[in-house]
Structures are given as structure tokens and as C-alpha cells.
Amino acid sequence: MTRSEVRRRLALEWWRQLAVTLAPLFVLNLLFGAEQKPGLLTMPLFIAGLASMFVNLPLFSAYKRALLATEKALDTPAEHDAWLDLARVRRQALLGAALPAWIAAIAVFAGLEAIPLILLAISSIVLLYLYRIPRQLG
After folding, report:
1. CA dist., res. 65 & res. 68, Å (int)
2. What is the pTM for the complete model shown?
3. Per-position DSSP letters for 10-66, written without gaps between them
4. What is the CA angle 13-18-24, rounded to 5?
5. pLDDT grade, residue 40 (50/70/90)?
6. 3-state secondary structure 104-136
7. pLDDT tens for residues 63-105?
8. Nearest to 87 by CA among 34, 21, 33, 16
9. Hey, how many other C-beta atoms are within 10 angstroms of the C-beta on 79?
10. CA 90 to each of CA 95, 101, 135: distance values in angstroms, whole numbers, following the listed order
11. From CA 119, how far away is CA 122, in angstroms rounded?
């Protein structure tokens, strides 16, 4: 598999993860959002969504190390293994980046208002954006 094919597959995986991250929030909000009245759990769920962003601190560090290792392994026999390791680390990090939006999807049932839902969704999008493969790699 060539380097450009790997980059293309990783880009497609990123777009798939974006859809998997945001789809539950949009679907649940569309189906159940209007029926819910604000409850006692709205603020704790919003805070939990914000706090879940801190899960990405160690995940981003591991991703950054994998990026550097992949860059060092370019045009060497270890390049294939470096791309596989980068994909594995990145997959875990993408799941961590999805947590705020997934917690927002759960918070729909508690009656969380639109603005906090949007803020949590945007935070997941920003976190996901951190895990795009840079152009310099490859």
C-alpha cells in the first residue's frame, strides 16, 4: 500500500468518525429534543461533557509521539509498521474526542438546552480536527 493510499484511508476514517460522533446527537435531538423539559441532570451532564475533553490530553500526547515516529520512519523499512501504529493510536484518540458529543446526546434525555448541546458538539469537532493527518507527513 502506498503512502498516498494510507493517507487517503486515514482521511476517510476521520470523516467516518466525524459522522459517528455527531449522528447520535442530531438524531436523538431530532427525535426527543422537543419533548424534554430541563431537569436536574442538565448541568452535571454539561459539566461532564466539558470535563471529558481532558481525556484527550494523554491521547493527544500519544498521537503526537506516533506522528513523530511515523515521520522518522518515512522511506525506511519500518514505515509500514509506523503507519499502523499511528492509525491505532489515532483511532483511540478519535474515540476520546467524540466523548463530549456523545455525552451531549445522552444529555438530550435530561433536557439540555440547544446552546450547551451545540457547544459540546463543537468541542468534539475541534478535538477531532486535532487528529487530522498533517500535510507535511507524506
Report:
1. 5
2. 0.90
3. HHHHHHHHHHHHHHHHHHHHHHHTTT----TTHHHHHHHHHHGGGGHHHHHHHHHHH
4. 125
5. confident
6. HHHHHHHCCCHHHHHHHHHHHHHHHHHCCCCCC
7. 999 999 999 998 899 989 999 999 999 999 999 999 999 999 9
8. 16
9. 15
10. 9, 18, 16
11. 5
- Set of cell numbers at residue 60: 493527544
Contact between 94 and 22 under an 8 Å Cβ cutoff? The reply is no
Residue type, 123: S
Least Cα distance to 1 among 110, 83, 59 occurs for 83
Q: Residue holding cell 450547551?
A: 116
> Residue 88: CA atoms inside 13 Å, Cβ hemisphere, count?
9
* Alpha carbon distance 105, 39 (integer Å): 15
